[in-house]
Amino acid sequence: MAGKSEAVLVFPSTHHMLRAEALLKEGGFRVRLVPAPPQAGELCTTAVAVPSQEGRKAASLLEARGVLLKAVLFPEEAAAAIQGRFPVEAAEELAALPGLGGIVEKLTRQEALGRRDIVSLLGLEGEEGRLCRAAEALAGGLAGREAVPAFVLDLRGGAAGGRKAGKRQGKGQARDLERLRALAAEMASLGLAYLILDLGGGEGVPWSAEEFQEALRGEVVAVVHADKLPGHAGELVRGYGVRQVLLGRGGLRRAGPQELTDEILFLRDNRPGPVGSGNLVPLLSRGLEVGEEEGRAVRRVLAVLRLVLGEAFLPVPEALWRRGELCGGNLVILEGVTERLRQALREAEDILSTKGWSVKRVKSGRGGSAATR
């Protein structure tokens, strides 16, 4: 959930949220993207958190620049809006596991878990079922049992962009750009705001920064996923407006509880981007054998992340949600080709509905009609 010393700014659309983020960063504010409290009645899935003492100043700046605000929630109001009480069903699942009495008490009192607590949770091999059910109950209480979809655009086979992006000639480039524009329009019509660019081992995207920004029209939260850190990662953030660069996580099961705890504590203390799991949980199903040891490790880590971080966007790889498992995740990853976007979204909605969850669509555009489900 939002930090105890943070104010949460809620917006009526993704366009206004993204514009607010850019203006506040330009103004020197410390900002981070957080899930919008469901009880706030917003039509944008994402809110912006700033230090509480700067909340009113930030709101005044945004209003002066014509950004529409739905609400500004200060710590006490934000805590009430997200129903901070730890769910009974989550506590019961954890209480059934030996040696977790102290951890359950801390979670119930909304106290931060310590290093030893996190190591203990990560060491519960074979108990992924109870951990996942507890994490799902907590995620449902925080997010109103609504998951946000994120579409993966596969650029592994495309021409590398980087510093040379936008300089290619010929019809191929025009087709690529038109496809990006069409995808952005399709996402807007479906109420989708998160786009993950999968670069694989490549170095860039096949468009210039100007083309990319124009095609997305300031209405999409773009995240890059790559097998290794792109040499122009800084350019992707500064020029393309990418919010986060994530690296594929291999061999998760080979990392010990102490190493994983270090990474989880870093995420809790720094909140590095809109995908709250950072590089810890694989976004894609590529190479993930759900049901085997690697899959069990992913479920266990994802569940512990939810229990430790509270409110955050945590990704659910497609290989998990298609089995009806969320494990505390609330950012549903849709893989595949653009032509199957509507179908993949319908399939996610159908599967999540069997668990009492829904897929949250957003209001897109500067003042257009709502696209909420």
The main pleated sheet reads as: 7 strands, parallel
**Residues in helices, as a percent range:** 40-55%
Query: Kindly, what is the distance between the CA atoms of the first and last residues, rounded to a whole number of angstroms?
Result: 24 Å
The number of strands is 11
The CATH topology of the largest domain: TIM Barrel
Over the alpha carbons, how many angstroms does the gyration radius reach?
20 Å
What's the overall average pLDDT, rounded?
Answer: 82
Shape: globular
Layout: helices, strands, pairs:
Elements: E1 6-10, H1 14-26, E2 32-35, E3 46-51, H2 55-64, E4 71-73, H3 75-81, H4 88-95, H5 101-108, H6 115-122, H7 128-143, E5 146-154, H8 171-190, E6 194-200, H9 209-216, E7 221-226, H10 233-238, E8 244-247, H11 257-270, H12 293-309, E9 315-316, H13 318-321, E10 331-334, H14 341-353, E11 358-359
Parallel strand pairs: 5-6, 5-10, 5-11, 6-7, 7-8, 9-10
Antiparallel strand pairs: 1-3, 1-4, 2-3
Key features?
373 residues; alpha/beta; Alpha-Beta Plaits; TIM Barrel; 2 domains; seven-stranded parallel beta sheet; four-stranded antiparallel beta sheet; 14 helices; globular
Question: Can you give a write-up of this model?
Answer:
With 373 residues, the protein is an alpha/beta fold. It has 2 domains: 6-81, Alpha-Beta Plaits, CATH 3.30.70.120; 87-373, TIM Barrel, CATH 3.20.20.70. The protein is built from 14 helices and 11 strands. The chain has helices at 14-26, 55-64, 75-81, 88-95, 101-108, 115-122, 128-143, 171-190, 209-216, 233-238, 257-270, 293-309, 318-321, 341-353, and strands at residues 6-10, 32-35, 46-51, 71-73, 146-154, 194-200, 221-226, 244-247, 315-316, 331-334, 358-359. The strands form 2 sheets. Strands 5, 6, 7, 8, 9, 10 and 11 form a 7-stranded parallel β-sheet that branches. Strands 2-3-1-4 form a 4-stranded antiparallel β-sheet. Helix 9 (209-216) links the parallel strand 6 (194-200) and strand 7 (221-226). Helix 4 (88-95) runs antiparallel to helix 7, helix 8 packs parallel to helix 9 (209-216) and helix 11 packs parallel to helix 12 (293-309). It is globular and about 55 Å long.
